[in-house]
């Protein structure tokens, strides 16, 4: 999990560097066209990051939902959960249902018992998927 966060940080930093490099190139070296390669490298890294991103495992997704439901989260965990790009259809459908049932994940701790039980059912389905796969 730490390597994923490190990779995301590096991609974000590369984007920032590419924007700053472009601005510096325009201001300091308007005739040095080779400096415009930096933004292209940043864009290529973003595309490569999106193409090589892996789906979370069903168990990891279940753990995330459980942690958010309990209110035991911090940092960017809510945003990371909301903005996942899941390609596997069954996993994506369960993730989507969790968002439909609970609304915004940061509000899951205030859900009524019926919705909490629906989210727990999704957690059970995800754990079953993880054991079957």
- Overall mean confidence score, pLDDT: 85
Multimeric organization: single chain
* Rg value: 20 Å
Count the beta strands: 0
Strand content: under 5%
Shape: elongated
Helix-residue proportion: over 70%
Distance between the termini: 20 Å
Task: Provide an overview of this structure.
The protein is mainly alpha-helical and 133 residues long. It folds into two domains: 2-52; 58-132, no CATH class. 72% of the residues lie in helices and 0% in strands. It contains six helices and no strands. It has helices at 2-28, 37-52, 58-70, 77-82, 89-102, 113-132. Helix 3 packs antiparallel against helix 6 and helix 5 (89-102) packs antiparallel against helix 6 (113-132). The longest helix is centred in the N-terminal third of the chain and has 27 residues, at 2-28. The protein starts with a helix and ends with a helix. The mean pLDDT is 85.
